[in-house]
Every structure is written in structure tokens, then in C-alpha cells.
Description:
The structure holds two protein chains of two kinds. Chain A has helices at 2-39, 44-49, 61-69, 72-103, 109-121, 128-138, 148-168, 173-180, 185-196, 198-214, 217-222, 231-241, 246-281. Chain A is mainly α. Chain B has two domains: 4-55, no CATH class; 63-295, MetI-like fold (Orthogonal Bundle), CATH 1.10.3720.10. In chain B, strands 1-2 form a two-stranded antiparallel sheet. Chains A and B meet through helix 1, helix 4, helix 5, helix 6 and helix 7 of A and helix 1, helix 3, helix 4, helix 5 and helix 7 of B.
Amino acid sequence: MINEKIGNALRIFGRIIINVALWLLSITCIFPIVWMIYSSLKTQREFAVDIISLPQKPAFSNYVQAITEGNLGTYFMNSVYYTVISVLIAVLLSFVIGYILSRFKFRGRTFVYYFFLAGMLIPIYALLIPIFLEFKAFGLLNKRITLILPYIAFALPVGVFLVESYVKAIPWEMEEAACMDGCKFGQTMSRIILPMCQPVLSTTAILSFLNTWNEFPLALVLIRSNRLKTMPLGVTNFVGTYTVNYPLMFAALSISALPVIIVYLLFYSKVMNGMVSGAVKG
Amino acid sequence: MASSYLQPRTSKIFAILLPGILVYLLCCFVPLLFAFFYSFFNWNGGGEKEFIGLGNYAQLLTDRMFWDAFVNNIVFIIWTVIGQIGIALIIAMLLLSKYVKCKTFHRTVLFFPVVLSAVVVGFLWRIIYNKDYGFLNLFLTFIGKEEWIKPWLDDPNIVITSLAIPKIWQYIGYYLVILLAAINSIDMSILDSAEIDGAVGWKKTVYIVMPLIRNTLIVTVMLCISGNMKTFDQIYVMTGGGPGTSSMVVAIYAYQVSMERMDYGYGSCVAIGILVLSLLLILLSRVAGKGRKSDD
């Protein structure tokens, strides 16, 4: 009897410990981000006095200063431009290539398939300097289109394979029925299959959005002009020059993290599943 | 596969595939050809290229700096394999417990840092490590361990560890979600009968769960390797490879050789070296993973 009671108490205690441990882990994990965001609303003096306390009265002056002095508005718009264009094209190309690879047998199919598969094995970071040298030779450095090309290319392998395996699960009768109803190949692809692929295409879009928005090394070596720099580059320059004004740094960092935070909060389960399926396939 | 009457002609198929293939060639394969070609030259960006055969490769083999940087990459890999996969596995096992509340919440919160850019994470942790305004030192003072306070990013002996921690912090959630997906696909009756046979706690993890998700574990190790060989952004913003060259990694080294010393020939050779080494490491982890499989 008594043993049973002690056993029960221990078990309940164990359950509480597990829950508390997980809460502590989660809080540790999220606190730096929360700290960054609320500290960006403090004045420099307030931060110097107490680095942990909440802002007494939220001050948006850091944001104003970061945008006006740091030129972060331009960098933000540049990043939006690069991201929107490369995501749209990458999704479109992934769909077309993935669809064709999954549906048709043709001479060279296996080659094209492994060609894209190889891209998942080639470590992209080893390409940093080679791409720079190639673009230098082709006169492609420091242009509006410069970053778009690699951003599309790097999004393709994962996108192609996500689409390819998704289309496989769509019954072939879809196309047959469309054909009976008089649809041409292009119409079948764009009117019938494309809408059905919406879930996998949105996953592809989210993944390439995150990668493109956060990309830093390629932008660093391929872009020189201030007019064309991306958000991560701009933030690096800006934060480097204001090494003592921490709330201002936090404001700049928060601006650059804002889009990914919003996307994550809106689509967190899609982001998690997408990143995992993209990774495990590779 | 489709029946043939619905299939467009091969020429049409290739016309549709062409734009994607071109962009992909241009950014993933042609650069390698360029780098391979340039790696046989002594070239400082000017008009003159001097063919030196395997000279750059000979230099690379004896380049202390490059191999020290590579060792740093390996240390990062070891740290993050232990830190990320180890901690993620522990959390995954905790989340498996029937008595844990708010599982989705924990998972979502733990995954949050994954979506941030390495630049943001790097700067954020630079401030966390700051000696006056970082909350790490404040926390150590608070728990009465002031003697643990160190110049986190300025001491060459600990800088690698200090740089590995943000990396571990950022990606635990990523590996957690991968491992959870694998664990959830295990037949629950196996786990239940294991528990009846007395395999609980760490025993259940090591003897039952880990062998069952071995393939996923191999994938995560490979992800750790490739994730760490590409380490660039975070170190670039946190230490720039310093103090001195104590936190140099291969990607930063390739960048410095090519972009700061303008030594394009040797820089290309370093890039090829990185490519070969990372493919070797990935191959090695695959073979190691498969090797264990044939033993049991």
C-alpha cells in the first residue's frame, strides 16, 4: 500500500519534471529572440542601465534611425525584389520540371533526373568563389539579375523532387479525362495539374523564400553597389558601424528578421514539414 | 508512367525543360569548370595568367592555414553532431511521453530559430556574449558563477566552442522535427512491449529507438556535416575567423584568399579542395552508417 503510494508520487513527480524541463528548454530557446525584439524598443540609456528589463515606454526611434541612417529601406526593398522574382520563377520551373520528370518517359530522362539530384550533393558553399569567377568572366557581377540566377538554381533541386514525388501520387486518369475533354498538353498541365499541386508548390515557395531572404555569402561576393545590396548585407554594414548602440542594432536585426518571423508564425507547420521533407529527400 | 499518346514530343519536352536546365547549369556546374580551369594558374585578377600545372594543389596540401581551418570545421561537426542531434534526441524522447502537455507548442517554439538568418543569429549572439551588455554574463553573475565568465569570443582556446553554441541553439529544432517524424513512424507496439520488458528511459532510447531510426540518424549526421562545412555567415559576422586565425573555417579561408588577397588561382584550388573534402566526408558518413548495418 505505502509502496504503491510512493510509486505514484514518484511517477507524478517525474511527469512534472519532464514538463518543467521542456518548458525551460522552450523558454531558453525563444528568449534570445524575444529579448532582441523588446530591447529594440528601448533607448540606449535604458538598455545600459538594465539589459533585461522591458522597455518603460516603447520607443520606435531606433527603427526610424535604422531606416533613415542605415538605408535599410532600400536594402529591404532589394531583398523583396530578389526574393519575389526568384521564388516565383523557381516555383514555376520546379513545377514544370518535376511534372515532366514524373509523368513522361523520354530519351535523356534519367540523365536529367540525376542531373538535378546531383545538385543536392554538390555543396553549394564550395561554389561561392567559382560562381564569382564565372560571373566575373561573363560580366554578370553587380547587376539586378546577378543574384536572381543562383537563387533560382539553388531552389530547383528540392522543388523538383518535391513536385516529382507529389505528382506521382496523382492518378493518371486526371490527364486522360482532360485529354478526352479536348485539353492540349499545356492546358492539362496548367489548368488541371497545377491547381492540384498547390500544397507542394506552396511548400516549395516557403522554402525558397526562407533561403533567399536569409542568403548572405553569395550576395557578399557578387554585389558591390550599395544600390543593389540585400538586407543581410545592409544589416551587416550598418551593425558593424554602430557597435555600441545595441538597441539600434536590435532594431536593424528585427527589421531583417521580421518577414521570416511573420511567415513562420503564419505557416509554422508547413515550414517545419517542408524543411524536413526537403532535407530528408536530399 | 504515361501512356504514349498523351505524351508530347521529346523535342517539346526539352524545350520546356531548357530554361531550368540552363539556369541550373550556369550556377551549379559551369562554376566548377571555371574553378577547375583557374586552379592550374597563378592569377591575381589582372590580365596575366601564368600556367603552373599542379602548383596550387601542391601548395594546398602543405597549407597549414587551410588544414587548420579544416580541423576547425571538423571540431564544429563533432560539437554539433553531439549537441544538435544528441539534445534533439533527448527532447524527442521527452516529447514522446504521454504526460507532456502542449507538445505542438514546444515543437513550434524550439523550431523557431531555424528560420532566422545566420547573420541575425550571429549578431544576436555577439551581443549575448558581450562582456558588459550580454545576458550570458549577467546570468552567470545571477547564479553566482562569476568565475565562469570568460572573454567568450576573444579567447582563442574557447572561441570554437563559443561559436558552436549558437549553431547548436539555432538548429536543435530542425533535428528535433526530423527525429520526431522518424520516431512517430515506429510501430508503437514495439515501444510498449519494450517498456514491459523493462526498457525505459535511456535504455529505451539507446537499445530500441536509436537502432530503429538508424537511417534517419545517418541522414541527420550528413546534414550536420554539410551544414557545418558551409559555415560562413555566422563566423563572418561574429569573429571574422579571429582572434588571429583561431576560428578560421574553410569557407572563410576561401573567401579571404580570393576576395581579400585577390589570389583567384589559388582561391579556385581551395574551392575545389573544399568540394572534394566535403564529398569525402559525406561518403565516409554513409559508409560508416552502412557498415554498422551489416554487422548486426
